[in-house]
Amino acid sequence: RRERQRFVDKNGRCNVQHGNLGGESSRYLSDLFTTLVDLKWRWNLFIFILTYTVAWLVMASMWWGIAYLRGDLQQAHDGAYSPCVANVYNFPSAFLFFIETEATIGYGHRYITERCPEGIVLFLFQSLLGSIVDAFLIGCMFIKMSQPKKRAETLMFSRAAVISQRDGKLCLMFRVGNLRNSHMVSAQIRCKLIKARPRRAREGGTGQTPEGEFLPLDQCELDVGFGTGADQLFLVSPLTICHEINSESPFFCLSQRSLRSEQFEIVVILEGIVETTGMTCQARTSYTEDEVLWGHRFLPVMSLEDGFFRVDYSQFHATFEVPTPPYSVKE
């Protein structure tokens, strides 16, 4: 096997990094909510804790500042004196008053009095700011937890694709499966072939157009049943996806011998709606030329038992050799 750089990993991660954004990096801040959702969990938790910690300390300092400027700290124990906030003697008590107010705990020992207009204004500001921060951060965490990315981990693709005959036609095939009992609603599959442009790729792999444009990662669609509706999947059991190699296929000139010298990558994209949440889920994988087996077929995984069909996932990736002509469809 020839190890080389993949465009899409087997687990669906795209090996593309964006660099030298320059002034365009400010676009991330213009869509701050999506930026936070896209961050890794450790950064989300760090920002979540940091934001609340800073907000608490700042607001508690403002309450302590009001008490200090009014002289409440010096006369807090005077029974005849009416402070802005009752029973606030120092910064820890001001911090506790803020937490009790923000969390609507209401122990009753500390409370704001009506003779403190600046405290009333600060109380209103704290309520508005707290609602905004809660809605933003908690909403961000909720969206991140409810993302259907983990659902894609229970969608399986065969480790290899195969080329063999089906109904007298040479076909490229691979297998998909759903490990959960919950269905993928409106599941649809698409395939992209990524390789250098064929014209110059045969002459040296430069992937140039007649005008000299360099196209090393040209993308073209592989027909997996768009016209017949075969790309719309009822994914309750493992299915074998088939691409018929004909005159319209980019593999029209592919033979068993030329497969050894080709360099391409087939990206498979499976999309559907998660039945339990109603959110759209996408699972991806890819097959390089080393992962395409000529003259193989997948082993059956379905068997009929007493009142139900049983799927044996231990044979999900297994293939066996079948007689297949080594010639291309063109030949």
Summarize the structure.
With 331 residues, the chain is of the alpha+beta class. It has seven helices and 14 strands.
Indicate the topology.
Blueprint: H1 26-30, H2 32-38, H3 41-70, H4 91-102, H5 117-145, E1 155-157, E2 161-166, E3 169-178, E4 184-195, H6 198-201, E5 218-222, E6 232-233, E7 239-244, H7 256-259, E8 265-274, E9 280-288, E10 292-294, E11 296-298, E12 302-305, E13 308-311, E14 319-321
Parallel strand pairs: 2-10
Antiparallel strand pairs: 1-3, 2-3, 3-7, 4-5, 4-6, 4-8, 8-9, 11-14, 12-13
Helix pairs in contact: 2-5, 3-4, 3-5
Task: Describe the 3D structure.
27% of the residues lie in helices and 24% in strands. The chain has 331 residues and is an alpha+beta fold. It has 2 domains: 24-146, Helix Hairpins, CATH 1.10.287.70; 150-321, Sandwich (Immunoglobulin-like). Strands 1, 2, 3, 7 and 10 form a 5-stranded mixed beta sheet that branches. Strands 4, 5, 6, 8 and 9 form a 5-stranded antiparallel beta sheet that branches. The chain has a two-stranded antiparallel ribbon with strand order 11-14. A hairpin with a 5-residue loop joins strand 8 and strand 9 (280-288). Helix 2 packs across helix 5, helix 3 (41-70) packs across helix 4 (91-102) and helix 3 (41-70) runs antiparallel to helix 5 (117-145). The longest helix is centred in the N-terminal third of the chain and has 30 residues, at 41-70. The radius of gyration is 31 Å and the shape is elongated. The relative contact order is 0.13.
